């Protein structure tokens, strides 16, 4: 599984980079892509979704309760039936006719 870690740092000399925070998720040989830091970049803790200790920031989403819509929605018996040809063609981008 490929993923990226974005961390800011500074070039101490042409062959060494001093990172602003530790990278503990990777080991061995890594690929490094360099670009100038964005002028208005948020502090690392804000961009990581938590504080500097790695703790997650509190969620601002309301908590959802499993089953809270039970009985409010009805799935029709023919839900899994094949679509009529005219609707299928419309989804596939073909003109109706």
Can you describe this structure?
The protein has a two-stranded antiparallel sheet with strand order 1-2. The protein has two helices and two strands; from the N terminus they run ββαα. With 97 residues, it is low in regular secondary structure. The two termini are 45 Å apart.
- Strand residues, percent: 5-15%
Poorly predicted tracts of residues: none
Mind describing the biggest β-sheet? 2 strands, antiparallel
Spatial separation of the terminal alpha carbons: 45 Å
Number of E-state strands: 2
**Class computed from helices, strands and strand pairing:** little secondary structure
Average pLDDT number: 77
Order of helices and strands: EEHH
Q: What spatial form do the alpha-carbon principal axes imply? A: elongated
Task: Evaluate the radius of gyration.
Answer: 25 Å
Write the layout of secondary structure elements.
Elements: E1 9-13, E2 16-19, H1 44-47, H2 85-91
Antiparallel strand pairs: 1-2
Task: Please summarize what this structure is.
This protein is mostly loops. The chain has helices spanning 44-47, 85-91, and strands at residues 9-13, 16-19.
What key phrases describe this protein's structure?
2 helices; little secondary structure; two-stranded antiparallel sheet; 2 strands; 97 residues
């Amino acid at each position: 599984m490929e993923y990226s870690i974005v961390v800011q740092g500074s070039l101490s000399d042409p062959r060494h980079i001093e990172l602003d925070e530790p990278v503990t998720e990777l080991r061995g040989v890594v690929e490094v892509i360099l670009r100038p830091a964005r002028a208005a970049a948020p502090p690392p803790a804000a961009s990581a979704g938590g504080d500097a200790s790695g703790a997650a920031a509190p969620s601002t989403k309301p908590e959802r309760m499993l089953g809270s819509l039970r009985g409010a929605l009805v799935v029709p018996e023919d839900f899994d039936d094949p679509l009529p040809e005219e609707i299928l063609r419309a989804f596939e981008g073909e003109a109706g006719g």
